[in-house]
Amino acid sequence: MEEKRLLTLDDRLKYEIAEELGLLEKVHAAGWKGLSAKESGRIGGIMARRKKEKKNEDCIDHCGV
Predict the structure, then answer these.
(1) According to the model, what pLDDT value does residue 1 have?
(2) Considering the entire predicted model, what is its pTM?
(3) Mutual orientation of helices 9-20 and 37-63 as an angle, nearest 10°?
(4) Contact 46, 12 (CB under 8 A)
(5) Helix, strand, or coil here: 41?
(6) Alpha helices (H) in 9-36, listed in sequence order
(7) Fewer CB in a 10 Å sphere around the end CB: N or C, the chain?
(8) pLDDT value, residue 17
């Protein structure tokens, strides 16, 4: 029996972006290894950008900049 685990925030973001890019069905069918380097890179790039934006928003909210 396969053990279910909770998704991390990064995992949830990755799935959200895959869905937005129309890749979620491919991920479900073939797993993350089924994506091309270009597709994986696109997801990783968008994740990095969103994390940076979130960090900047948090700093503005807490630092009063």
Answers:
(1) 52
(2) 0.81
(3) 120
(4) no
(5) helix
(6) 9-20, 24-30
(7) N
(8) 98
Question: What's the CA gap between 1 and 22, in Å, rounded?
Answer: 30
Q: Are 46 and 18 spatial neighbours (Cβ–Cβ below 8 Å)? A: no
Count CB-CB contacts under 10 A for residue 23: 20
Nearest partner of 27 among 51, 53, 7, judged by Cα: 7
Record the tokens describing residue 37, joined without a space: 């380097």
Give the per-residue pLDDT at 64. Answer: 64
Letter string b/e over residues 33-52, b meaning 16 or more CB atoms within 10 A of that residue's CB: eebeeebbebbeebeeeeee
* Overall residue count recorded for the chain in this entry: 65
pLDDT digits (tens, 9 = 90+) for 15-53: 999 999 999 999 999 999 999 999 999 999 999 999 999
Structure tokens at 7: 């998704």
Q: 10 Å Cβ neighbour count for 18? A: 22
